[in-house]
Automatic annotation (TrEMBL):
It comes from Lacimicrobium alkaliphilum. This is Potassium efflux system protein. It is a multi-pass membrane protein. It is found in: Membrane. Keywords: Antiport, Ion transport, Membrane, Transmembrane, Transmembrane helix, Transport. The chain crosses the membrane at residues 12-30, 35-53, 59-78, 90-114, 120-139, 151-175, 187-209, 221-241, 275-294, 300-318, 330-354, 360-381. Residues 19-375 form the Cation/H+ exchanger transmembrane domain. InterPro entries: Cation/H_exchanger_TM, Na+/solute_symporter_sf, NAD(P)-bd_dom_sf, RCK_N.
Length: 559
């Protein structure tokens, strides 16, 4: 059977898709995240198990397109004003995490018996986290726009820049004696190309993006093709200039982020992104040689524990010292609790140069398998995990975490007609209507950009989310008539987390005596929500349809 599959690339692709579907169904029955299934497919299809993949170049091409599309979608969500705001913490956290992880990792390497050069390589490899995996998880949990999500993406980009420098350094060592032994000319060329690329993107975003997309968007198929083409072009340009493809794809998204068509692009590309990511993990699986892993088990466990516990703790400490709350630091810190595919590439370059042996590559591979698999669960269960560890994180938070706004003491004495959680399209429309009718409002959202916009309009707005009990404690619950939640349920495939239910439990726990209105997109759960104490269940689609039907009926009667 396997011989038949290997005879034809189409048979090979069919077998990969069938394997992915089978693993996906099993994962769904076991309530596992899809990303774990993707990793399992990559390992099973690789040379150490079924050895299905023989069209490696084709799979690698699809994997590279997946990287470009994924980071393109992330770039679409980035606001240049927000980048200026979060740039310092992203830079400080990114560089701080790299410095401390490499220093401590080097010491651990020496302690477990590795030589100096091997310890240095492994220590640097431990500093790289997988942008691809983290962005996928944050997207699944609808946390890309949250403060901790944006900070995490920021310092992951800083890590990508460190990857570039590390790869250039190794390349320079590998070609030493060819006229530029220290690689300085190579570095200058890349820096110049990077500045030119950034300038072109900014000019395009400022003057060309909106009028060009206005014409292109008349045809939705052309909009889709243009978006993919732009992502691939800038990813290729970035790679050609010596950067990673992630940075090129990200800049392509930034180029279109200021246009009014970005949400339309996101909705059309999300399914394609998820499909292509399968090939990224298959490509990664083909690079794993499980036969090299057996003798490295104990050192790998030591390094894995450091990555899983030490890396997040480093981020918590750095962000806490900069004035962020322990919860934000913890949620952001979990995103560095794994090593990246670049870690394997970095060590493989060391093997090629002659600095390392294949056993070291096996060691880092095993660390990658352990940390990627476990960090997926840590991030998926991040809010529950925080509640269990909260008391142990208190020493890493300033007495006044001034960078995150909390309801002030004078706010506690204010009286609100309603506090609205979630300012998406539905929540924003409710807030707009109630505000126009003269009701006193406060609004809560986990997107700092949205919070800033509503504060500028003169409406009390706070950064927070429904799963944060510390924040809810500061709200003026005793002086509020209604709590309104329009938050969607997060179908992550594992936790099926419903932030609205968490909110109900938390506000009742803090003694809220007013009424609760909750938006639901599942007609069958109306009675369940009433049983939980919800006074009014809003059904956005059903209510809108009923209102539209009522208007049509009245119009017909008048005619």
């Amino acid at each position: 059977m396997l011989e038949l599959i290997r005879e034809n690339p189409f048979y090979e692709l069919t077998a990969l898709l069938a394997l992915a579907a089978l693993i996906g169904v099993i994962g769904q029955l076991l309530r596992q995240p899809m990303i774990v299934g993707f990793i399992a497919v990559g390992v099973l299809a690789g040379p150490s198990v079924l050895d299905i993949v023989h069209s490696a170049d084709s799979i690698a091409l699809l994997a590279e397109l997946a990287i470009a599309v994924l980071l393109f979608l992330v770039g679409l969500k980035l606001d240049l004003k927000l980048i200026r705001t979060l740039g310092p913490v992203a830079l400080a956290t990114g560089l701080g995490q790299v410095a401390f992880t490499s220093a401590i990792g080097f010491g651990i390497g020496l302690a477990v018996g590795l030589d100096t050069i091997t310890s240095a390589y492994v220590a640097v490899a431990l500093t790289f986290s997988s942008t691809i995996i983290i962005v996928k998880l944050l997207s699944d949990k609808k946390e890309v726009d949250s403060l901790h999500g944006q900070i995490a993406i920021g310092f992951l980009i800083v890590q990508d820049l460190v990857v570039v420098v590390a790869m250039i350094t190794l390349s320079a060592i590998g070609v030493g004696g060819t006229g530029d032994p220290d690689g300085s000319e190579h570095l200058l060329r890349i820096a110049g190309g990077g500045l030119l690329m950034l300038a072109l993107v900014l000019v395009f975003a400022r003057f060309l993006a909106t009028p060009l997309l206005k014409r292109i968007a008349k045809n939705t198929e052309l909009l889709l093709v243009f978006s993919i083409a732009l992502a691939a072009m800038l990813a290729a340009l970035g790679h050609g200039l010596g950067f990673s493809m992630e940075l090129g794809g990200l800049l392509a998204g930034v180029a279109l982020a200021s246009t009014p068509y970005r949400e339309s692009i996101v909705s059309r590309l999300s399914s394609l992104r998820d499909f292509l990511l399968l090939f990224f993990f298959i490509s990664l699986g083909t690079q794993l040689d499980l036969s090299l892993l057996g003798e490295q088990l104990m050192p790998a466990l030591v390094f894995s524990l450091f990555v899983l516990i030490g890396n997040p703790l480093i981020v918590v400490i750095i962000m806490g010292s900069m004035g962020y709350r322990k919860r934000t630091g913890f949620l952001a810190g979990l995103t560095v609790a794994q090593i990246s595919e670049f870690s394997l590439i970095f060590v493989a370059m060391g093997v090629t140069i002659g600095h390392l042996t294949n056993e070291v590559l096996g060691l880092v591979t095993l660390v990658g398998l352990i940390t990627i698999a476990l960090s997926v669960y840590m991030i998926t269960y991040s809010h529950s995990l925080y509640l269990k560890l909260e008391k142990w994180l208190t020493p890493f938070e300033r007495q006044n975490p001034y960078r995150e706004s909390q309801p002030a003491q004078n706010t506690q004495r204010k009286s609100y007609d309603a506090i609205i959680y979630g300012l998406g399209r539905f929540g924003s429309e409710i807030a707009e209507t109630l505000s126009e009718q003269g009701y006193s409002l406060a609004v809560v959202d986990f997107n700092p950009d949205v919070v800033q916009k509503w504060n500028k309009r003169g409406i009390e707005a706070f950064y927070g989310d429904a799963c944060d009990p510390d924040f809810i404690e500061h709200l003026p619950l005793n002086h509020t008539q209604w709590i309104i939640s329009t938050l969607p349920r997060h179908e992550t495939g594992l936790t099926h987390e419903d932030p609205s239910r968490s909110l109900i439990s938390a506000i009742r726990h803090h003694g809220f005596k007013g009424k609760i209105a909750l938006a639901s997109y599942y007609p069958g759960e109306r009675q369940q929500l009433h049983d939980l104490g919800v006074d009014l269940v809003l059904m956005p689609f059903k209510d809108a349809a009923a209102q539209a039907a009522n208007i049509l009926t009245q119009k017909s009667e008048k005619d």
